[in-house]
């Protein structure tokens, strides 16, 4: 598709109705685009002029004082009008020199008809030409869209879609993906040129929030321009399709072509993700074997997952659980819709894992998704920290998914310790379960995502006999709980805050929003029930552990 659908002053002068027109100023502005034609005789023209308007006038405004005449021209120039056509012989006989000088200074085309003309013929001719061009543009866009639709219905060939865009524009096309190999159409002459384009995308486009949502322009070396359009699937930018233009070009039509192409590519990617999801369901058994601790051969386990054998390089593994929690009212009216949204979330999760370069196994069980991530250790950087950072970003993206859905959900997540052996991943999943239990039970631990962040709760969750923990809490805090239940004095809460603030009465009163005298009365009651030695180190440790265990038991 040619980009020559734009009408410029240069082409307007070649129209039959402009045979008697003469350009007297602004010769350097002949490439100004003409979008519409207006007839204006008033002096306050700014509110009625839009960009690329060609103005027709008999020059009545030239009868005003010099400053008003200049103001008329300045308004047209500020509004980025395409040009001005003045008819001589009806209202005026010539154009003042200061008007001609101003038009030349601003490269603003100034045309004169030295004999009266019918403005209606000019508007009909130019408007008809513009409408015909727009009609032709729409026909070409429709043909372009049909070709893309045929490709997306017949195959999952990304290169075929890029080739159609190249045929319609003739410019270099770049496909930069975070889930598959980059592609070029046509293929660059050298590997260095392809690497240069890839490096430019990584440096300038990736990480640019605006470029990840909307079409963006990036100047390139050699007076070139990169026009980039994001390819978005399930709210996540998985790739970019770009076009390299030689210098400034009319962009409106090209942006439309890129938008059509990006939507077709999104359809292909989404289909490939769902096909992959269907294929990878067979790997559920591997996670099930890990959870039941049935994997003993490390090499066999890695082979089933498709990661590098242990003897060829170290791989870091981490296991985690993501769980969706819906309001009780959401589970009954639209169960089918919830299942569809859970499936979309699973596909998006897999896409995010690919985007961050993590090999993975996923298994959905009810509202839970079990995740096993693998990442090869590199020579540079803190590999464990990089793996955790990637996991953290993935969970943050997933939490944003629940906003605005027909059945909004809360997302809970927990991940165990990073380990170098896949056969130890049953421990990581068990730790992930503990992280989720602690983060849901303890307010201060709500943001905890990794096992090492739950601190002393590792010890509390490691106690196998819950009855023993219940007995310990009852022994340490039972009397206070009984008194609170009968008198509603909040002694357990007061003790908890008092210990947190290291026995500071002033800070404790402020944190509880109570008067100091009220706090003194409660502390007296604590002394009476617990004994005056409750701040002694050994006794205090027992009380603090019991306070930490309370949320887990409830």
- Shape type: elongated
Q: Sheet with the most strands?
A: 5 strands, mixed
- Which percent bin holds the helix content? 40-55%
Low-confidence segments, ≥5 residues, pLDDT <50?
Answer: none
Measure the end-to-end span.
68 Å
Number of helices: 18
Query: Gyration radius, to the nearest Å?
Result: 36 Å
Q: Count all strands and give the number.
A: 16
Mean model confidence by pLDDT: 83
Strand content: 15-25%
Strand order of the largest sheet: 2-7-6-5-4
Q: What structural category characterises the helix and strand content?
A: alpha+beta
Put the structure in a nutshell.
With 554 residues, the chain is of the alpha+beta class.
SSE inventory with pairings:
Blueprint: E1 7-8, H1 9-12, E2 21-25, E3 33-34, E4 36-39, E5 53-57, H2 66-78, E6 83-87, H3 97-105, E7 110-113, H4 119-154, H5 158-169, E8 172-177, E9 183-185, H6 191-205, E10 216-220, E11 224-233, E12 236-246, H7 252-280, H8 284-291, H9 298-305, E13 315-325, H10 335-355, E14 359-365, E15 368-376, H11 383-401, E16 410-415, H12 425-441, H13 457-462, H14 466-487, H15 491-500, H16 505-512, H17 516-530, H18 537-553
Parallel strand pairs: 4-5, 5-6, 6-7
Antiparallel strand pairs: 1-3, 2-7, 8-9, 8-12, 10-11, 11-12, 13-15, 13-16, 14-15
